[in-house]
Protein 1
Amino acid sequence: MMNNETNTSVVNAAHLPEHGPLDENGREIILTVKNLDITFGKGDNAVKAVKNANFHIYKGETFSLVGESGSGKTTIGRAVIRVNPCAAGEILYKGVKISGKISRTLDKEVIRNIQMVFQDPAASLNERATVDYIISEGLYNFHLFKNEADRVAKVEKIINEVGLLPEHLTRYPHEFSGGQRQRIGLARAAVMEPELIIADEPISALDVSIRAQVLNLMKKFQAERDVSYLFIAHDLSIVRFISDRIAVIYKGDIVEIAETGELFDYPMHPYTRSLISAIPIPDPILEKNKVLFTYDPSVHDYSEDKPELTDIGNGHFVYGNKKEIEEYKALRAKNEPIKSITILQPGEERPAAPQVERSYDDEFINAPVHDTGSKWYVFLSFLLPLLGFIAAAVFKRKKHYRNYKACKKGAIFGVCVLGAVLLLFGIFLLLAVI
């Protein structure tokens, strides 16, 4: 292990080292996310999308982030490539801090070494550029070829490796299917020869028959190039196939981290069990009689004993308070696989699903595009309080909660100011009469 002085010098280095730090087992750590908070908005509209996230990714492994929509998976991925700013904590690549302000030279090295494959293969490709230019853009920007012949050779090699043909290079993205576009996106990332690829739900927009091809292609690149993946998904059945370790995230909190086999055999956190129970069963009769395990956040009492991510053994981390952690440890010590799926027997009644209340944070994270909470709503509601209250009621009904709070805030402030003016006018009028 490195001492504090050495560690500080590495964290603040101007260039990326050839190798990252080693853990106690001698494995190279390529990426570290430490106490990461990410917040969107300010004041009343502020939403903490990621809360105190901690994990690391080893060289050559696939580390997956799994959770429902709006849980913060993509937010973390975009923070790693320096798109989303960090409110607190830090991100280290090979032991060097890459979050916050860094030198231009280090920024270029980060871009060169960390690439991203996006969820939407259509929106992530420039429709006006040929496939040749799309794949070559990174090579041009970083001058990663000796001459034109070398560039062409690299592009043709990578296009063959992803299962496309050299004649496809002169075509445009709209001439390809979704699976072919995603192959182009993967080729664009792989041609840079990065050490870490962030794959943000790369197969969710693809047909089921194409998904296995793209996953096999990613595994092929990993075996040949020793590349690491941060794989972002919401489907545990897909993640099970490709991952070495899995982190489950819920509303910005990482609630469980474990190796793939460990997580599926011993899911400790109830949210993880709910995700596993949602995996479809191929047998239609069993699927019809399956009882979903519904996660109810109210089962946790964190009013006094605050939770934290704790290692319960076997490299298995679970989010909970002291009481819960002791229960998880005792459950794991039994070494008995935990069933997350219940199949109803013939004639057995289906239990009623618990009612889970949604919070404003859920609505903010999954807010409609036009739910901006603009300051103009506050200003106009201040000038016309009655219309402001009406607009607030309409926005609340339409689940535009940012706009609702903006109109309500402006209207209340407007009523208070109008009331104060009328009160002062009344006092002056009374004094004038006296």
Protein 2
Amino acid sequence: MKLLTLISRLLVGSLFIVSGLIKANDTLGFSYKLHDYFAEEVLNLPFLDPFAWHLSVVICVVEIVLGIALILGYKSKLTAWSLLGMIVFFTFLTFYSAYFNKVTDCGCFGDALHLTPWQSFSKDVVLLFFILIIFWKKKEIKPGTFSQDMVYMGISIGLIFLFSVGVIGWAFPVIFALVSYAVLLIVKTVFDSEQMGWILATIATAISFGFSYYTYAHLPIEDFRPYAIGKNIEEGMTMPEGAVPPEYMYMYTMKNAKTGETFETSSIDYLEKEIWKNEDLEIDETSEPILYKDGYTPPVHDFSLISMDTDEDLTDTILHMDAVFLLVAYDIEQSNGEIQPTVNSFQQSAEKGGIPFYGVTAGLYDQVETFRHEHQSMFPYLSCDAITLKTIIRSNPGLVLLKNGTVIGKWHYNDFPTFEEVKSELL
């Protein structure tokens, strides 16, 4: 039983470290997923929306710290209770999402690995099994000796390598684990304190929070999205030969205008059984789209760039320009205002250099005009879907450089470059 407990510790701890780091690499993206869960039609917790990013950081840091604590054997009771509480909650959440088809991707591994709702639930059930073993044997989990720590850390790094490099293709979690374990091991060896568990937890928390904040204040150090540097947007929109798109249906709540009686039917039956011919029946409510036949969905979809001044579709034109800058601000009213003078200066230099410059937003025309006049922005704006823009870059605003539809460069507003720097390095 001791061996099974140790295996459970190493497996769960290593997986939690990788899972936490993947989400910490893109806490803003994880916060968008939390918004989906907070929606009225899912958990009905809209009052938590303003705190989504803060909660995303807390979840990421807690996952990493619990993983490290489990490997090192400190605070076993608190760690076991915390793990059990988290896995029970997330198992319920993934089952709820899968059964009621509420959130189609749990976001457990960010954009690095997409799991269907039932795959997410199955993963949580397996984790629950191992965590129950840890919880059952929590009193037997103790801090190890130096040699034991070295062995456990070595095995954990091997598992982290398997999870992160073997499955996801990202080596950073291995580097993070090596550095973190080395720091913690040095502290544990040099200092002798009865509060060593809390000291190590504080250090692990600081390291994890520092990484989370860095990727938020700049950009994710690894971009798993279809708009990553080096990706071609037009290729991402293309359906492979022979592929068919997924098919969706809707559930209609039908109401009899004469009797007031209601019943549910699918959009498929509505057409095939010619329910629409019955003049006494009307559609009272329509569900969200429900997937009923799998198919291929291109990684890039809903990408269209419409001129706000002329309503002209400029998508194809933009994607075939030799070079073009896009200032992406999915929410124009919340776009960082302090960076706008720098943006205007950059745009003027780009114009002199013969490189087109466009703003892209999901905002309304009046909102854009107000913003342009307030900040003296002379460049034209294009309209695009908000979710697409939030996927393109985790910054509001953020600068993107395209060459013939390929993403060449991306910059957070905290790292806004000069035109001369971009010209010398990328143009």
